[in-house]
């Protein structure tokens, strides 16, 4: 875990597999959201949120991606995640994929907690809200 998440974000290794590549040997553009989800899963596990926890009943509201340099690698790639904003029922994450000094892609994802019974937005638990707020970063990571 990063020493000071609130200032640097958290960099996690994310695995890229052969089936994530296109015919040119680059990560296929539609696989980046899957890679973000892989990283968010680890990010949430490090916060103590395991499969089945009520705060993991989420839906993606928004996802933006900017592609800078092709990623032509099977194996581990660095995904840096940071919390940009925490609202009553949603959270906005920033993210960046990089190998060494090369930024491959970056963007933002907004997820909304959903009540399983009503399928309407639901507030975060106090513990999760506190952990997300402690991981907020307002500077530039790109």
TrEMBL record:
Keywords: Hydrolase. Its EC number is 3.1.2.-. SUPFAM superfamilies: Thioesterase/thiol ester dehydrase-isomerase. One of its GO terms (molecular function) is hydrolase activity. It is an enzyme of class 3 (hydrolase). It holds the Pfam family 4HBT_2. InterPro entries: HotDog_dom_sf (IPR029069). Transmembrane segments: none annotated. The keyword Repressor does not apply. It comes from the Bacteria. This is Acyl-CoA thioesterase.
